Amino acid sequence: MPALQVRDFPDDLYEKLKEVAAREHRSVAQQTIVAVEAMVSGEYALAKEEPRHSLYLDFDTEAKRAARIKKRQELFESAKAHPLVLPPDAPSPVDVIREAREERSRHIGEVLDEIMERRVSYGGN
């Protein structure tokens, strides 16, 4: 089942959602599903009325979107201008991952050996 993550969700709207969920004896996730389902199926009361300006949807104006894009571009440019320089003897990412996997395998093997020793000492098969 898909998951939904909403960034920059307004605090006051979240508190209202929690209140409605509690009143309806639902979790916030359940109440969100009910609200979205009602909206997309046309049962949402405001959908039948003349559209009105939402207090919560105006954060994505063209100017704000352009500002976010510009900020992101500046961050990428800054990262390019200051590359991470590793010492020449630093291990490669592949080597680091391989070593971590080998260490994990050794640890799992040790734990399994310990379990088997206990089982044998207790008279198990």
Structure overview:
By secondary structure, this protein is mainly α. The protein contains 5 helices and no strands. It has helices at 11-23, 28-40, 45-48, 62-81, 93-121. α1 packs across α2 (28-40). The protein is flat and about 65 Å long. The two termini are 42 Å apart.
**What structural class results from the helix and strand content?**
mainly alpha
| Count of extended strands | 0
What is the makeup of the main sheet? none
- Run of helices and strands: HHHHH
Estimate the mean pLDDT confidence: 83
- What Rg is obtained from the alpha carbons, in whole angstroms? 27 Å
Low-confidence sequence ranges:
none
Q: Residue share in helices?
A: 55-70%
Strand content: under 5%
Brief write-up:
With 125 residues, the protein is an all-alpha fold. The protein has helices spanning 11-23, 28-40, 45-48, 62-81, 93-121. The longest helix has 29 residues, at 93-121.
Blueprint of the fold:
Elements: H1 11-23, H2 28-40, H3 45-48, H4 62-81, H5 93-121
Keywords, please?
single chain, mainly alpha, 5 helices, 0% strand
